[in-house]
Amino acid sequence: MSKRVVVLISGSGTNLQALIDANLPDVSICLVLSNRKAAYGLTRAQQATPPIPTACLALQPYLKSHPGKTRSDYDVEVAKIVVAQKPDLVVLAGWMHVLSEGFLDLTIAEGIPVINLHPALPGEFDGSHAIERAFEAWKKGEITRSGAMVHKVVKEVDRGEPLVVREVPFQENDTLETYEERLHSVEWQILVEAVIKVFK
Q1: How far apart are CA 21 and CA 43, in angstroms?
Q2: Percent of the chain with pLDDT over 70
C-alpha cells in the first residue's frame, strides 16, 4: 500500500518537481495544494505522469467570499482539504504562508506529520527571506556558510526537530543568484531524503 503525500506549494514548484522526479517507490503524491492560482507548480502536477490532482485556496479570495472569517479560519480550511485526502505525510515545499495553530491542531489530531523545507540551518535565519539575510551576513563577514534543512512543523516558526540538515558554504565570488542556485539543488536532495526518512 503506497504512502499518500500531500504537497503544499506557493510558486514555481521546483521542490515539488524534485519529489515527482525522485519517483519514490511506495510513495504517491495524492494532492498538490497551492495558495496562489498562478503557481506554476500546479501545472507541473498536472503534467506529471500520471497527473497529480490539484487544488487552490488563496487567502484573499477566501476572506472576500467569507465575510467575518479570519486568516486562522483560512488555515483550518486548508487543513480540512489536506485531512480529507487521508495522507500519511504533508510536505510544505515552498509554501509561503506561516500556518497557524488551527492547521496544526487538525493535522496533529489526525496523526498526520507535517514537514517543511527551510533555506537555513537550525536556529539561524528563521522565517522569511532567510537566503537574503544569510547572504548579507556573509557579505559582512559574520558567517562563512548557511544551508538548508527539512524539519518537523511545530507551532514555533522553523523550530521543529530537523530531519535532514545540509551546510552550503559561500564561495569567494558568490552573488546572491549563484549562491541561491547551489542552495536550491541541495534543497531538492534533502527534501527527497527527508520523505524517505519519515517513511523508514
Answers
A1: 15
A2: 100
DSSP for 9-24, written as a single string = ESSS-HHHHHHHHHT-
CB-based contacts of 171, cutoff 8 Å, min separation 6: 178, 179
Q: What is the 3-state secondary structure (H, E, C) of 154-168?
A: CCCCCCCCEEEEEEE
- Give the cell for residue 129: 527571506
The C-alpha cell that represents 13 in the structure block: 514548484
Of 30, 84, 77, whose CA–CA distance to 57 is shortest?
77
pLDDT in tens, 116-154: 999 999 999 988 899 999 999 999 999 999 999 999 998
State the average pLDDT over residues 160-173. Answer: 95
CA distance 195 to 89: 8
Residue type, 128: S
Is a pLDDT exceeding 70 seen at residue 158? no
Spell out the long-range contacts of 137-143 with Cβ–Cβ below 8 A and sequence spacing 24 or more.
138/170, 138/174, 143/170
pTM: 0.93
Residues serving a catalytic function are: 118
Strands (E), 35-144: 54-56, 89-92, 114-118
pLDDT of residue 157: 72
Backbone angles phi, psi at 102, to 5 degrees: -55, -40
Asked whether the beta carbons of 132 and 163 are under 8 A apart, the reply is: no
